[in-house]
Amino acid sequence: MKKEMKLVRRKENWKRVMALTLSAVMMFGLMGCGDNGEAKESENKQSSEESGSEKKEESSTGEESKESSSEQESAGGTEANANSVGWAYDLGDQEWTGEEATLSLMSFFSPDPSSSTSWWEDEIRKYTGVTFQRESSQNGNFANMLTSGELTDIVGFEEAHEVVAAAEAGKLINLDDYKEQLPNIYQNPLLDSALRFWRENRCGGLDGLYVAPTGVGNNDSTTEIPMIRYDVWKKIGSPQPANMDEYFQMLKDMNEANPTAMGVQATGTDDGKPCYAIVGWDDNNAFAMNWLPYYGWFNLSRTVVAKGDGSQVLSIFDDSLPTKQMLKNLNDLWRNGYVHPDSSDMDYATAKPIFDNGHGLMIGVEWMGGKYNDIHTDETGNMTVWADDFDIYINADAAVGNKQCIGISSDCENLDAALRFLNWYYSPTAYNLVKNGPEGYLWEYTDDGKQTFTADGIEKYRTNREEIGSGGDLFNAQQFLNAQPYSTFVLNPTTGQPLYHEYWDAFYETEQRWGQLEWRRTTGFTRTVDMARANGAKTKSMAFSLIPTVDPDLEQTVGALQTAWKTYSWKMAKAEDDDAFEKLWNECKEECDALGQEDVLNWYTEKFEEAQKLAEQYPLKTSWD
Question: What is the rounded CA–CA span in Å between residue 432 and residue 495?
């Protein structure tokens, strides 16, 4: 009877918790990309020793194995001088010869499964014997799955509170009970801090670990940086702005010199479509908020920010911040026709082709500028220019990963197969396939066992639309779960090279894009992170990734503040004159104060301080000294 009552309470708790948190899932899923996008400007590298690939016998007995006490090194460097590392217990390169199985999968952060991933699913089947039935997380399906408690066999979670609710309801297996079947997770020194952190802080105080963390590893990249049309910047004389006001004047001058832009086909002719200094979209005042990181301030919520080094937490209305100055400059551009007139009404999907076609002269974050660069090989491209007073930071190492994670349902009928897939997914072979595709597509081995590009590999990388094998492209594989186990800077233990082709020496050596080459010639640097270091850049605190989900009693307040800021910031951007702007700024501040801005500021100040202390307990294991 007691057991039955306990199960009933678990189910009731599941529904109660999910009812309270589903609104947060939807709200925070729309809040900024932050550091969860992977930057493309680093080749921080490690080398490695090949480790054994002895296959572990799979069983679902639940017996724990003794954790490996052998310590292996994982240190950063370059391909030439990287330290030795042996993080991979099982390389994952042995084909599966046993019985095949079918599992279901849904991930909050994965797109609709209708896109073809045939080649990637063929590889999964080849190495694990698993075929997946993917279920769409769109149209509320993921939220409905959480509410019902009927999880797919493999689940990709977006937020820790989802994990807690599922684990407390008995809907997830305790991975600690299956250590022997998961050597790439439990005997992997790279994951040491991440496993401890998630077990101790993200599983609701339960005894055990119920999900595998993702995105773990070292980072060697800058935080958000602006990208501008480098050819147009050169055209107006390559001015070096001293501050924000001069930067905005530079954007005006660029737009005057380039009122229309070249199209996607790169024919070398002007397509006649108008070009704008700034292009935004309606999710938030994306352009204005992107400026805060240029000055070393990063979002905790839409209306609360913290200094990158963790020294201060402030309201965005604080007079010491450049928030108001940014909006006033944006308003000046809007009134004079330098901002795309549909910016406040377009969604990101509509705005993206404008960037890709080169019709936006400034792009707020680095990852958005790459498509235009990849399409064009003539003398054009998006590259970064910094004002003298910018305070660009270097991203923190992801010692505990990011907020996304992967779990296995306790209702899974073929647990052996699910564990086999999860262990393989954390292997070098799987990660190499996800990021680089199969041998012969982008890359091939050299005589000394290194990976290098095939004759047409660079071209395939840029277009990324040539089908692989039985169907689908490289991007489709990355979107399958849309969460990889490691950062892109982790090294392949068999080659000593970064596991991602963008950080191979061969990538830099074979660079052909005009923008990249011209930027190198102009600045004297190969990577933006090198320029940041030369400018004395600090490293962003890992505490930003350790802030918990906002308390339920503040959820509505945070949501209301987000809506108020979004609404008013666009109104300020489009204000008719300076007096109208000042009136809107004051109204926005007053409304946010009335909604509870101070309560939210105090909560984040307290939680950020706790997160800083927590970060000290979970360092990334980069050596065994």
Answer: 11
CA pair distance 288, 20, nearest whole angstrom? 31
- List the structure tokens of 112: 């609709």
Give the CA radius of gyration of the chain.
25
Per-residue pLDDT of 168-200, as tens digits, reads: 999 999 999 999 999 999 999 899 999 999 999
Q: What are phi and psi of 444, to 5 degrees?
A: -150, 165
- The tokens of 567 are what? 């609404």
Three-state secondary-structure class, residue 228: strand
Scanning 445-596, the segments in alpha helix (DSSP H) are 457-463, 474-478, 505-509, 514-523, 528-534, 552-573, 578-595
Q: Do 394 and 533 touch, CB atoms closer than 8 A? A: yes
Please report which helix (H) or strand (E) contains residue 21, including its range. helix 2-28
| Burial of 580: CB neighbours in 10 Å, binned 0-12, 13-18, 19+ | middle
**Which amino acid, 83?**
N
SS3 per residue for 161-174: HHHHHHHHCCCECC
Distance of CA 117 to the CA centre of its chain: 21
CB neighbour list of residue 162: distance below 8 Å, 6 or more residues apart: 18, 21, 25, 108, 146
* CA separation for the pair 526, 529 (Å, rounded): 9
Structure tokens at 441: 């597509």
DSSP H/E element including 102? strand 101-107
The 3-state DSSP class for residue 264 equals coil
Give the contacts of 270 (CB within 8 A, at least 6 positions apart).
Answer: 260, 261, 262
> What is the widest separation between alpha-carbon atoms in the chain?
81
Of 443, 488, 479, residue with least CA distance to 461: 443
Tens digit of each residue's pLDDT (9 = 90 or more) over 42-94:
333 333 333 333 333 333 333 333 233 222 222 223 343 333 345 777 889 99
**Whether 171 contacts 151, CB under 8 Å:** yes
Q: Which residue type, as a one-letter code, is found at position 397?
A: D
Q: Are 161 and 21 in contact (CB under 8 A)?
A: yes
Considering the entire predicted model, what is its pTM?
Answer: 0.78
Cβ neighbours of residue 225 closer than 8 Å, sequence gap 6 or more: 294, 365, 366, 384, 386, 392, 528
Instruction: Burial-class residue 388 by CB neighbours within 10 Å (0-12, 13-18, 19+).
Output: exposed
Q: Which two tokens stand for residue 490?
A: 């982790």
358 φψ region: left (φ > 0), alpha (ψ -120 to 50), beta (else): left
Residues 322 and 330 sit within 8 Å (Cβ to Cβ): no
